[in-house]
Design a protein that fits this description.
The protein has 225 residues and is an alpha/beta fold. It is built from nine helices and eight strands. The chain has helices at 17-28, 35-48, 56-62, 95-103, 106-122, 132-136, 150-163, 170-186, 208-223, and strands at 6-10, 31-34, 68-73, 76-81, 84-85, 125-129, 142-147, 199-202. The chain has a five-stranded parallel β-sheet, with helices on both faces. Strands 3-4-5 form a three-stranded antiparallel β-sheet, covered by helices on one side. Helix 7 (150-163) packs across helix 8. The longest helix has 17 residues, at 106-122. The mean pLDDT is 91.
Protein backbone atom coordinates (compact mmCIF):
# COMPACT_ATOMS: atom_id res chain seq x y z
CA UNK A 1 0.00 0.00 0.00
CA UNK A 2 2.25 2.83 -1.28
CA UNK A 3 0.20 5.85 -0.18
CA UNK A 4 -0.90 6.71 3.33
CA UNK A 5 -4.52 5.72 3.73
CA UNK A 6 -6.98 5.13 6.57
CA UNK A 7 -9.47 2.32 6.98
CA UNK A 8 -12.10 2.72 9.71
CA UNK A 9 -13.87 -0.25 11.26
CA UNK A 10 -16.63 0.51 13.76
CA UNK A 11 -19.15 -1.63 15.56
CA UNK A 12 -20.55 -2.77 18.91
CA UNK A 13 -18.78 -4.69 21.67
CA UNK A 14 -17.88 -8.25 20.80
CA UNK A 15 -18.30 -7.85 17.05
CA UNK A 16 -14.77 -9.09 16.47
CA UNK A 17 -13.43 -5.72 15.37
CA UNK A 18 -10.01 -6.08 16.98
CA UNK A 19 -9.30 -9.59 15.72
CA UNK A 20 -10.59 -8.88 12.22
CA UNK A 21 -8.97 -5.44 11.92
CA UNK A 22 -5.64 -6.87 13.10
CA UNK A 23 -5.78 -9.63 10.48
CA UNK A 24 -6.78 -7.17 7.75
CA UNK A 25 -3.97 -4.78 8.67
CA UNK A 26 -1.44 -7.60 8.46
CA UNK A 27 -2.72 -8.68 5.05
CA UNK A 28 -2.60 -5.09 3.75
CA UNK A 29 0.73 -4.11 5.32
CA UNK A 30 -0.87 -1.41 7.51
CA UNK A 31 -0.52 -0.42 11.14
CA UNK A 32 -3.35 -1.74 13.31
CA UNK A 33 -4.73 0.73 15.87
CA UNK A 34 -7.11 -0.54 18.57
CA UNK A 35 -8.69 2.61 20.00
CA UNK A 36 -10.77 0.59 22.43
CA UNK A 37 -7.56 -0.44 24.17
CA UNK A 38 -6.78 3.23 24.79
CA UNK A 39 -10.11 3.76 26.55
CA UNK A 40 -9.57 0.58 28.53
CA UNK A 41 -6.20 1.94 29.66
CA UNK A 42 -7.83 5.17 30.86
CA UNK A 43 -10.48 3.11 32.65
CA UNK A 44 -7.78 0.97 34.28
CA UNK A 45 -5.93 4.08 35.49
CA UNK A 46 -9.16 5.45 36.96
CA UNK A 47 -9.92 2.22 38.81
CA UNK A 48 -6.38 1.98 40.12
CA UNK A 49 -6.64 5.56 41.32
CA UNK A 50 -9.91 4.91 43.12
CA UNK A 51 -11.78 7.29 40.84
CA UNK A 52 -15.30 6.53 39.64
CA UNK A 53 -15.37 5.83 35.91
CA UNK A 54 -18.58 7.90 35.65
CA UNK A 55 -17.20 10.95 37.46
CA UNK A 56 -16.31 13.57 34.78
CA UNK A 57 -14.56 16.01 37.12
CA UNK A 58 -12.43 13.33 38.76
CA UNK A 59 -11.52 11.78 35.40
CA UNK A 60 -10.54 15.15 33.96
CA UNK A 61 -8.21 15.62 36.91
CA UNK A 62 -6.45 12.32 36.13
CA UNK A 63 -5.71 12.96 32.46
CA UNK A 64 -2.61 15.09 32.98
CA UNK A 65 -1.01 12.11 34.73
CA UNK A 66 -1.71 9.63 31.96
CA UNK A 67 0.66 8.78 29.13
CA UNK A 68 -0.58 6.16 26.67
CA UNK A 69 1.72 4.76 23.99
CA UNK A 70 1.39 1.94 21.52
CA UNK A 71 4.00 -0.61 20.59
CA UNK A 72 4.11 -3.54 18.21
CA UNK A 73 5.56 -6.96 18.93
CA UNK A 74 5.38 -10.00 16.66
CA UNK A 75 2.73 -8.25 14.61
CA UNK A 76 0.54 -7.54 17.64
CA UNK A 77 -0.28 -4.23 19.29
CA UNK A 78 0.91 -3.61 22.85
CA UNK A 79 -0.45 -0.77 24.94
CA UNK A 80 1.55 1.00 27.60
CA UNK A 81 0.11 3.03 30.47
CA UNK A 82 2.76 5.34 31.90
CA UNK A 83 5.42 2.96 30.61
CA UNK A 84 3.78 -0.24 31.92
CA UNK A 85 2.59 -2.88 29.47
CA UNK A 86 -1.07 -3.33 30.41
CA UNK A 87 -2.09 -5.24 27.27
CA UNK A 88 -3.28 -8.27 29.24
CA UNK A 89 -4.78 -6.47 32.24
CA UNK A 90 -7.10 -4.28 30.15
CA UNK A 91 -8.71 -7.40 28.66
CA UNK A 92 -10.28 -8.47 31.95
CA UNK A 93 -14.09 -8.75 31.48
CA UNK A 94 -14.88 -5.80 33.79
CA UNK A 95 -12.66 -3.45 31.79
CA UNK A 96 -15.15 -3.35 28.91
CA UNK A 97 -17.74 -1.40 30.90
CA UNK A 98 -15.03 0.81 32.42
CA UNK A 99 -13.95 1.68 28.88
CA UNK A 100 -17.54 2.43 27.91
CA UNK A 101 -17.93 4.68 30.97
CA UNK A 102 -14.83 6.78 30.33
CA UNK A 103 -15.42 6.95 26.58
CA UNK A 104 -18.68 8.80 27.26
CA UNK A 105 -16.68 11.69 28.75
CA UNK A 106 -15.86 14.50 26.25
CA UNK A 107 -12.63 15.28 28.13
CA UNK A 108 -11.37 11.72 27.68
CA UNK A 109 -12.32 11.58 24.01
CA UNK A 110 -10.55 14.89 23.33
CA UNK A 111 -7.49 13.64 25.22
CA UNK A 112 -7.16 10.58 22.94
CA UNK A 113 -8.38 12.11 19.68
CA UNK A 114 -5.12 13.84 18.75
CA UNK A 115 -3.11 10.67 19.38
CA UNK A 116 -5.43 8.65 17.16
CA UNK A 117 -5.47 11.17 14.32
CA UNK A 118 -1.71 11.66 14.48
CA UNK A 119 -1.15 7.95 13.88
CA UNK A 120 -3.38 8.08 10.81
CA UNK A 121 -1.42 11.05 9.46
CA UNK A 122 1.91 9.27 9.79
CA UNK A 123 0.97 5.71 8.82
CA UNK A 124 -1.48 3.76 6.73
CA UNK A 125 -3.80 2.38 9.39
CA UNK A 126 -6.67 0.03 10.00
CA UNK A 127 -8.29 1.63 13.04
CA UNK A 128 -11.20 0.14 14.93
CA UNK A 129 -13.52 1.55 17.57
CA UNK A 130 -16.98 3.00 18.05
CA UNK A 131 -16.71 6.38 16.26
CA UNK A 132 -13.76 6.09 13.90
CA UNK A 133 -15.74 6.68 10.71
CA UNK A 134 -18.03 9.31 12.24
CA UNK A 135 -15.68 11.37 14.43
CA UNK A 136 -12.03 10.29 14.57
CA UNK A 137 -11.38 9.75 10.85
CA UNK A 138 -14.44 11.06 8.98
CA UNK A 139 -12.37 11.28 5.79
CA UNK A 140 -11.22 7.65 5.97
CA UNK A 141 -10.94 6.11 2.53
CA UNK A 142 -12.82 2.97 3.58
CA UNK A 143 -15.43 2.68 6.32
CA UNK A 144 -16.94 -0.56 7.56
CA UNK A 145 -19.57 -1.06 10.25
CA UNK A 146 -19.07 -4.55 11.65
CA UNK A 147 -21.82 -6.16 13.68
CA UNK A 148 -23.39 -9.47 14.74
CA UNK A 149 -26.36 -10.56 16.84
CA UNK A 150 -25.84 -9.98 20.60
CA UNK A 151 -26.10 -13.73 21.27
CA UNK A 152 -23.40 -14.42 18.70
CA UNK A 153 -21.11 -11.77 20.16
CA UNK A 154 -21.64 -13.13 23.67
CA UNK A 155 -20.85 -16.67 22.51
CA UNK A 156 -17.59 -15.53 20.93
CA UNK A 157 -16.54 -13.66 24.08
CA UNK A 158 -17.50 -16.65 26.22
CA UNK A 159 -15.42 -19.04 24.12
CA UNK A 160 -12.44 -16.68 24.21
CA UNK A 161 -12.47 -16.58 28.02
CA UNK A 162 -13.00 -20.34 28.34
CA UNK A 163 -10.06 -20.96 25.99
CA UNK A 164 -7.91 -18.92 28.37
CA UNK A 165 -9.06 -21.03 31.33
CA UNK A 166 -11.17 -18.21 32.80
CA UNK A 167 -14.38 -19.02 34.67
CA UNK A 168 -17.12 -16.88 33.14
CA UNK A 169 -20.88 -16.97 32.70
CA UNK A 170 -22.38 -16.79 29.21
CA UNK A 171 -25.53 -15.13 30.57
CA UNK A 172 -23.47 -12.49 32.38
CA UNK A 173 -21.47 -11.76 29.23
CA UNK A 174 -24.68 -11.44 27.19
CA UNK A 175 -26.12 -9.09 29.82
CA UNK A 176 -22.93 -7.00 29.77
CA UNK A 177 -22.93 -6.80 25.96
CA UNK A 178 -26.56 -5.64 25.86
CA UNK A 179 -25.82 -3.08 28.56
CA UNK A 180 -22.72 -1.88 26.71
CA UNK A 181 -24.71 -1.56 23.47
CA UNK A 182 -27.35 0.57 25.17
CA UNK A 183 -24.76 2.79 26.82
CA UNK A 184 -22.66 3.23 23.67
CA UNK A 185 -25.65 3.92 21.42
CA UNK A 186 -27.33 6.42 23.74
CA UNK A 187 -24.42 8.44 25.11
CA UNK A 188 -24.49 12.13 24.23
CA UNK A 189 -20.85 12.27 23.11
CA UNK A 190 -19.94 10.41 19.88
CA UNK A 191 -22.59 7.68 20.17
CA UNK A 192 -22.10 4.39 18.38
CA UNK A 193 -23.68 4.65 14.95
CA UNK A 194 -22.97 3.65 11.39
CA UNK A 195 -21.47 6.39 9.23
CA UNK A 196 -23.64 7.18 6.21
CA UNK A 197 -20.91 6.02 3.82
CA UNK A 198 -19.90 2.91 5.80
CA UNK A 199 -20.44 -0.57 4.42
CA UNK A 200 -22.53 -2.69 6.80
CA UNK A 201 -21.18 -6.20 7.44
CA UNK A 202 -23.16 -8.56 9.68
CA UNK A 203 -20.95 -11.54 10.58
CA UNK A 204 -23.58 -13.56 12.47
CA UNK A 205 -22.80 -17.19 11.71
CA UNK A 206 -19.41 -16.40 10.15
CA UNK A 207 -16.21 -18.13 11.16
CA UNK A 208 -13.23 -15.81 11.66
CA UNK A 209 -11.67 -16.61 8.29
CA UNK A 210 -14.89 -15.76 6.46
CA UNK A 211 -15.22 -12.47 8.36
CA UNK A 212 -11.65 -11.44 7.55
CA UNK A 213 -12.10 -12.38 3.89
CA UNK A 214 -15.32 -10.34 3.70
CA UNK A 215 -13.63 -7.27 5.23
CA UNK A 216 -10.65 -7.55 2.87
CA UNK A 217 -13.01 -7.84 -0.11
CA UNK A 218 -14.86 -4.67 0.94
CA UNK A 219 -11.54 -2.82 1.31
CA UNK A 220 -10.21 -3.98 -2.03
CA UNK A 221 -13.47 -3.22 -3.82
CA UNK A 222 -13.54 0.27 -2.25
CA UNK A 223 -9.91 0.97 -3.11
CA UNK A 224 -10.09 -0.83 -6.45
CA UNK A 225 -6.94 -2.85 -6.11
Amino acid sequence: MPEITAIAIDGPAGAGKSTIAKAAAKALGCIYVDTGAMYRAVGLHALRSGVGTKDPAALAGLLSGIKITLGYENGGQRIYLNGEDVSAEIRRPEMGMAASDVSAMPQVRAFLLDLQRDMAKRHSVVMDGRDIGTVVLPEARVKIFLTAAPEERARRRYEEHIAKGEAVSYNKILQDIRGRDAQDENRSTAPLRRAEDAVLLDTTGFELEKSVAAVLQIIRDSMQY
